[in-house]
Amino acid sequence: MSQIFTKILLKALHNKLIHIVFSVIFLTLGTTFVFSQKNPTTNTVTLTKSEFEKVKDSTKIDTIKKKKPFLDGVVNMKAKVYEKLDQKKKTVTLHDEAEIYYTDFELKAGRIVLDYEKNLVYAGRLKDSAGNYYQRPVFKQGQSIIEPDSIIFHTKSKRAKVWNSRTKQDELYIKAEISKKENDSVYFMKNARMTTSKNIDEPEYYFLVRKVKFVPKKKVVAGLTNMVIMDVPTPIGLPFAYFPMSEKNTSGFIMPTPGQNNRQGYFLQNGGYYFALSDHYDLAVLGDYYTNGSYGLRLESNYVKRYNFNGRLNFRFENNIVSEKGFPDYLKSKQYNIQWSHAQDAKASPNSRFSASVNLGSSQYFRQSVNMNNVGSRLNNNLSSSVSFSKTFNSVPQVNMSISATHSQNTNTEVINMTLPTFQASVDRVFPFASKDGIKKGIIKNINFQYNLRGENRIQTNDSLFFTSQMFKDAKSGFQHTIPVSTNFKIFKYFSVTASTTYNETWVMNTIRKKYNSLENKVETTNVNGFESFRTYNFNAGIGTTIYGTFNFGEDKKIQAIRHVMRPNIGYGYTPNFNQYFEKYALDATGVNFGDYTKFEGGIFGAPANNFSNSMNFSLSNTFEAKVRDDKSTKEETKKVMLLNNLNLGVRYDIAADSLKWSEISLSGGTQLFKQKMNLNFAAILDAFAIDNSGRRIDKLNIDNGGSLLRIPRANMTINYNFSSSDFGPKSKESQQNIQNGGTGDDLFGKSVDLSDSRQSLFDKDKDKSQEKLEWFSYKIPWDLRFAYSVTYNNTNRQNEIQSHSLMASGNIELAPRWKVGFSSGYDFKQKGVTFTQLRFERDLESWRMSFNWVPFGTNTYWGFFIGISSSIFSDIKYEKRQLPDRVFR
């Protein structure tokens, strides 16, 4: 019985090990306060707690030293196989999937030994029957994580000694043969490997450092260091090295990239300094210098305030020189570009909003720039900007107000149009004959009106006069007040009727005067500054309905039904003539020939008309859908397929016209095919009247003039098709720099390339490469393609020609794992030539990246080769060679 009882007792002791540990600590190391009070029978003295404190305060001497507890916190521990307490050795042993949680550190390992007398923790791996080690220790303290083969840790001093430790700091993986932790912030390492490869045990490259002092999130100071590639030492090395590591932005130099250009000589590009001004904004100052005297300067700043706004500001200037002074091909060009984007958080202010999208500068900047980021923007022919502030006043009725400045610049003609500023205000719709919460039904209750105010200061100039005083002298300014009154109601249950009238009052500060000059024998037009105004009004009405039609073919058919939706509409418009605003002027010196003009001609809000308008408008909108049996469905379900998204017809009949009462017929339509991956849009102008030899319409039907029933003066069609290998796949990432430069988000016109930026890649870096099957051959070859087809037909004067006809294409294909090829090209069928063509090749070398970009022919041929480490930490370890395009300046 004693043996059985002993076994049961030991079993209970084994199960309650952690309670016994803390009982021992409590009984041996704990302290207790003892209080006494005098008792008449026992002649003892008892002191209350307050009296005890008084005695303690009076003596201020504690003769009994309080023993410090052994443990500073609660210890939580567990193990899968067993937990063993050895009171003689003062140790606790945890075996198999052992875990200890104490104060600020966590430790997991195959085997853990806690020596609570020496304040030491030992942790190591386990070995299986085949001799392989498993359950490597994982030590975590704060944000620092170490995965060694074994570790010794002192719980009091926080010092540790680690064998084959593995740790990660930002993008840097570190493995050291022996590591010593002095305190929470300093580590010393011997024979450490530093790499950005995720495979820390067998990296494709690493830096072997003999001695290292490592301060987490601050710095790494290394001794003799050399680079090892595929376990082969290289002569690339340093006697010492310093790697700053910080979670905060830090200022520092940006190393330039050397190279050579055929027309500008040797150069240093993209060098400068980065200023980490604060957590909310920064500044990068970059520059280029060429040996022939050319130079470039760029200022780039990003700013953000959480829950309020964020933005980006770029200023770029280039002084390009070709050849040398005295030579006939000497050219000098100064170009600049300013970009600013600002976005406000929607939660920052619900009733006001400020936004900006600015892209302005020299018209030839993108065409003459030698910066690779501008390759995809070389073909841009328009720059535009907009800065606006809007505010809503929550009154009854609601009032909206906005102030904006806009800019539009044609880089071909170098003409610039600006509104600086534009002011708009509007009062929300008011229903004067309807109660506030009542139903608005009928012609009277639906009567409503609004008030809109628009003011503009419009400027038209060109590149040479931009930002000069001359550009403001020809500015036109004015205000326009608009009061629309409308109503709507139903008749005959199915017809909707709308009626409206609009009153406009326009104030302008610029008018004209026409006068015949007998000395020069011509009509002169002079500009007059001063306040003038005019008033106009019109009336419009319309009636429309919706007609549904379904054509059933049977449920046993593939196409079971086709649905046709028609929306016909008949409109009427009336505008009187405003002859009171017109004057006569002499056309010549005879005194017989006179013309009419209005001094408001060419105004920013147009001019009053002296032609009476009384016309009818007819339009028809069509939509076609098909009900198709879904062969993939097991329940014989059907699906809807869009045949024609819209097919629109429109024509106008002028009642007041003497001839040519019918206008041209407009036809437009569009649809989406192949699971909405192909967008097809078309438009055409049809005309029933003939034209004369000069191309003017005459009051004679074309069929009576020996032609067809309808002429086609103009027509165009566009097709866009995006698809890929994976169910048409995800679309390629947009080039943000291309968009900010004023281009499109795709790479049909080339991809912006900055070889000095190691972060740019054709591959999706978000993809987990650890789960890829790295094979030399794969029957699944990922690819994506984008096509854009456009054709325009012109027959306005019997040309019967294709005015423009082009096909653009771009795509990427992964020929093998980590091998990717991309291209952008096209063909102009009108000019019979290949458009801008760019070829892109890239090899993903895990931690490295190798790329080659090439424009093989054209006016801006170039090529560039790059190989380097992808991580930004070692971004300066690279090799690149390039031939920049030879820009032609003017």
What descriptive keywords fit this protein?
890 residues, 30-stranded antiparallel beta sheet, disordered N terminus, 6 helices, elongated
What does this structure look like?
With 890 residues, the chain is mainly β. Among the domains are: 2-59, no CATH class; 159-247; 250-380; 724-883, no CATH class. The protein has 6 helices and 52 strands. It has a 30-stranded antiparallel β-sheet that branches. A hairpin with a 3-residue loop joins strand 20 (257-261) and strand 21. Residues 1-60, 727-734 and 766-778 have low confidence and may be disordered.
Kindly report how far apart the N and C termini lie: 110 Å
Total E-strand runs: 52
> What is the arithmetic mean of pLDDT?
81
Q: Which radius of gyration do the C-alpha atoms yield?
A: 41 Å
Q: Give the strand content.
A: over 45%
Structural class: mainly beta
Low-confidence region ranges: 1-60, 727-734, 766-778
Shape: elongated
Question: Could you outline the blueprint of secondary structure elements for this entry?
Answer:
Elements: H1 2-15, H2 17-29, H3 49-59, E1 75-78, E2 82-86, E3 91-102, E4 105-115, E5 120-124, E6 126-127, E7 133-134, E8 138-141, E9 144-146, E10 150-154, E11 160-169, E12 172-181, E13 187-195, E14 205-215, E15 219-222, E16 225-229, E17 232-238, E18 241-244, E19 252-254, E20 257-261, E21 265-275, E22 283-290, E23 295-305, E24 309-322, E25 331-344, E26 352-361, H4 365-368, E27 382-393, E28 399-410, E29 415-430, E30 448-462, H5 470-473, E31 476-491, E32 495-517, E33 522-544, E34 547-552, E35 559-575, E36 582-586, E37 594-598, E38 613-629, E39 638-654, E40 665-673, E41 678-687, E42 689-691, E43 697-701, E44 711-724, H6 736-740, E45 783-794, E46 801-816, E47 819-828, E48 833-834, E49 838-845, E50 848-855, E51 862-869, E52 878-883
Antiparallel strand pairs: 1-3, 2-3, 3-4, 4-5, 4-8, 5-10, 6-7, 8-9, 10-11, 11-12, 12-13, 13-14, 14-15, 14-16, 15-18, 16-17, 19-21, 20-21, 21-22, 22-23, 23-24, 24-25, 25-26, 26-27, 27-28, 28-29, 29-30, 30-31, 31-32, 32-33, 33-35, 34-35, 35-38, 36-37, 38-39, 39-40, 40-41, 41-44, 42-43, 44-45, ...
